[in-house]
Every structure is written in structure tokens, then in C-alpha cells.
Amino acid sequence: MDENCIFCKIVNGVIPSKKIYEDEAMIAFFDIKPMARVHLLIVPKLHLETLKDCDGSHQALLGKMLLLAPVLAKEHGLSGFKTLINTGREGGQEVFHLHMHVFGGGLTGS
Ligand code: 5GP
Ligand code: ZN
To answer: Residue 18: which of 7, 8, 28 has the closest Cα?
Structure first.
């Protein structure tokens, strides 16, 4: 838990979110500024700033993130979807707690 991290606060229920999934390692909720009809964020509970901070010890966690995407997409009526992990400021990352976007149902622009 990083005290200054907005997603750690969501993981710990300090900041509310529209949560759609939770298990021991992962949480998923709706993005506050959706860029598609369905825009989900899949977030590991472990505070890792970026994909660059992952190593072999995080392989199972990353696999879980990927495998959760089609499950949640299906639950939200999507037959196809896009996934995105922004990495680092140059990669467009704004929240420095690893997360994967899942978009579907038509992008709405930003
Ligand atoms: P990034 O650019 O870091 O990949 O994306 C961060 C995403 O987190 C953005 O799409 C932004 O709308 C979303 N976001 C930022 N703060 C909050 C929040 O407090 N609640 C929720 N649900 N989403 C957030
Ligand atoms: Zn965090």
C-alpha cells in the first residue's frame, strides 16, 4: 500500500469505485472517465508502479490480469474488446499503479 496512490486507496476502500470484481490478488472497476461504452480497469492489489517494475516473480499476477479481461468483457456483454497498459509518463501513464484498461462497445474519444 502506497499512501499517496489513488489505486491503493481504491483497493483499500478509502476511495469509492464502481467495483465489478475482486479476489485475493486483483480488483476491477469502471474507469471514472470512460473512453468507451464499457471501460474497465483491472488492477492488481500489489502496488507496482509500472509494467517496467515487474519481473519473473510477477508472472502469475500478470497472467491473471490478462485472463480476467475476457471474463469481465463477456460479463459486460462484449464479444470483442481492446486492452491497454500505458507504461511510464512517455507511455501516457497517469496513475502510477499498474493497471490494464479494457475497452469495448465503441470508443467514445477522449
Ligand atoms: P493511465 O493513463 O494511467 O493508463 O490511466 C489511468 C486511468 O485511471 C484513467 O483512464 C482515469 O480516468 C482513471 N482514473 C483516475 N482516477 C480514478 C479514480 O479515482 N477512479 C476511477 N474509477 N478511475 C480513475
Ligand atoms: Zn498503489
So the answer is: 28
Q: Is the CB of 51 under 6 A from ligand 1?
A: no
Contact in structure between 54 and 48 (CB atoms under 8 Å): yes
CB of 31 closer than 8 Å to CB of 101: yes
30-72 per-position pLDDT tens digit: 999 999 999 999 999 999 999 999 999 999 999 999 999 999 9
Q: Does residue 33's CB lie within 6 angstroms of at least one atom of ligand 1?
A: yes
> Is 97 an active-site residue?
no
Gap between the Cα atoms of 23 and 60, Å rounded? 14
Is-above-0.90 flag for pTM? yes
